[in-house]
Amino acid sequence: MNFLIAAVVLLGALCLLNLLVTFAVLRRLREHTAELESLAGRTPLMPYVPVALIGRTLPASGAVRPQLVAFFDVHCDTCHERAPQFAVAARSRTALAVISGDGREADDLVEILGDGVSVITAEAAESMVRALGVEAFPTFLRVSPEGTVLEAGTELSELKGLGEMAPVI
């Protein structure tokens, strides 16, 4: 009989402890949710628009200046999705792809872009990203023959002058 009473008291104590821990977790979740809601109200999310790149001049990297430049990052899923679209747009133009990062993902991007696109990777790519101040990937640029950025966007379709560019023969 004493064993049964001790077991019931122990079970009751465990249930009470479980109830106290559950209330503490619920209280902490409410505080955390309120904190997240207050942070969301203070910091509105602004979409990245690469207009700051317009007017900048590309660093000289070769004899022929590219008309179309794309900045990709190996860890960016959107970059892998947009790479085939850029490869198609680059078929009739001099194009340059700057791939931030290296490894197998960089090799995959180079393969998607094909032979018609000049590619810069590794350290040279990082220095070009820093030189132009690219903050988001992918970023697409339409460039004048003098190397000045005429248009910039995160979508290739945002480059309005893309259809007006003379194809390279």
UniProtKB/TrEMBL annotation:
InterPro entries: Thioredoxin-like_sf. This is Thioredoxin domain-containing protein.
